[in-house]
Each structure stands twice: as structure tokens, then as C-alpha cells.
Amino acid sequence: MKGLFITIEGNDGSGKSTVIQSLKEELAKLDVEVCYSREPGGSYVAEKIREVILDTDNMAMDDKTEALLYAASRRQHLKETVFPALEEGKIVVCDRFIDSSLTYQGIARGLGVDEVYNMNMFATEGFMPHLTIYLLVDPKIGLERKSHQKELDRLEKEKLEFHEKVYQGYLMLADRFKDRVRVVDGNVSIQEECKAVNDIILSFIKERGF
Ligand code: TYD
User: Fold this and answer.
1) Distances (CA, A) of 143 to 11, 35, 71
2) Among 5, 12, 28, CA closest to 97
3) Averaged pLDDT, 116-135
4) Which of 33, 94, 144, 163 could bridge to 90 as Cys pair (CB 3.0-4.6 Å)?
5) Does ligand 1 lie within 6 Å of residue 11's CB atom?
6) Residue 54 confidence (pLDDT) above 90
7) What digits encode the pLDDT tens for the residues 86-114?
8) DSSP string, 159-204
9) Residues 12, 16: Cα–Cα separation, whole Å
10) CB 96 near ligand 1, within 6 Å
């Protein structure tokens, strides 16, 4: 495939949405075609699955069901949105991807990183991002930022302990996937965080000839 697949990850409250907005403004200045997407969701069917996953009425959802639904959403998103865009030579920037499953389900829910990884390989057929950014903020600060939001989804309602595990999980994964992952400190000002991410992505796409 001719395009580039870049994913942005982070623990809750890491400033991901603002960072992606700033990246959009930077990339709009270049002569490149970019497709922005998100998980869970990112295509018609995948957005339907997202509603089920995040619905606060579904508190009885089993952890393995949750992991399978994220993988199902991912499969559909790849087929409907990501692969076609990459075939057309576009840069795809995606808000969350497989690393979220590895840390939220594999580590924080305790299903096991290898188990969740292998299950995802069925969904993705081994396809991985070319570059992934991890935005990491102290989970206490992250949750404090989120607490101002009116409605929290099912995952955001989890306790601090769960978010600590997500954070630690990302640190572990950053080491495991060194070649693909760049960690950005989310404890600094949002302007500094945006600049750090924009710098990494701009130089990466330049290196790749875009
Ligand atoms: P979203 O509203 O997109 O939150 P955020 O702005 O934090 O990205 O909700 C996605 C939630 O789903 C978020 O808490 C992380 C979680 N998640 C997983 O647990 N596993 C996954 O594979 C993905 C993609 C997301």
C-alpha cells in the first residue's frame, strides 16, 4: 500500500483531541492528502459497535466480549476506511488503534498482552501502523482533566487504579515496540505537547517522501 498509517494513543486526559486538532492545522498547510479517523469507530458499522462498547448501560459487559468488540470494530474500520485510503496513497491519522487494546484490555483488564495481541492479529492480518505516538500524562492529572466533562463513557468511569495500569501498560509497550512508537510527555503545557507531536510527524512524513 502506498500511504502511511499513523496512530495517536494516550491514556485518558492526555490531550489527544487537542493534539490531533493542532496536527490537522499543520498538515493542512502541506500538499498532502490526509484521512482522519478514530477507534472504536471510523466507519458506519464500526461506529455502531462503538455505541455498544461505550454505552454506560452495558456495565455487565464481560472483559473478553469487550476485547472482541474492539477487535471487530478495528477489522471493519480497516476494511472500510483505512485500507482504501492507504491504497489511494493517503496519510491516515487514527485516534487510537491496537495499542489501546493491548493496554486497556490486555493489561488493565488483565486479559494478557499476548492473548489480546494474537486475537487482534486475526482482525488485522498482521497489519501495524508505520508510526505511533503515545501521549502519556500522569493518570491523576488525566482523570482530573476528564472530570470536568459532563458525561463520562463506560471506560472513563473506571477508577484511578485502572487508569494507572493503562499508563504503566503504555510504558511497557513503548519498550516492546521501540521501532514504531514515540513517547510524548503529556504533563507539559498543551502548546508544548502539540509542538512535540507535530515535529515528530512532520519529520516522519518528510523522511518517507511525502
Ligand atoms: P473515546 O471517547 O474515543 O475516548 P478518548 O477521547 O479517550 O480516545 O473512547 C474510547 C475509549 O475506549 C477510551 O477510554 C479507550 C478505550 N479503548 C479501549 O479500551 N480499547 C481499544 O482498543 C480502544 C480503541 C479504545
Assistant:
1) 9, 29, 25
2) 5
3) 98
4) 33
5) no
6) yes
7) 999 999 999 999 999 999 999 999 999 99
8) -HHHHHHHHHHHHHHHHHTTTTEEEEETTS-HHHHHHHHHHHHHHH
9) 8
10) yes
Grid cell, residue 178, equals: 521501540
Ligand 1 atom 19: residue of nearest CA: 104
- Ligand 1 pocket, mutate which of 82, 100, 109 (most atoms under 8 A from CB): 100
Q: Where is pLDDT greater, at 147 or 27?
A: 27
Model confidence at 126, in pLDDT bands (50, 70, 90)?
very high
Alpha helices in the chain (DSSP H): 16-28, 44-54, 63-77, 83-87, 98-100, 113-124, 139-146, 160-176, 190-207
Categorize the per-residue pLDDT at 37 as very low, low, confident or very high, splitting at 50, 70 and 90: very high
> Cell numbers at residue 100, please?
489501546
Handedness of CA 36, 129, 18, 56 (dihedral sign): positive
Residue to substitute in 20, 81, 119, 155 for testing ligand 1 pocket (most ligand atoms within 8 angstroms of CB): 155
pLDDT at 150 > cutoff 80: no
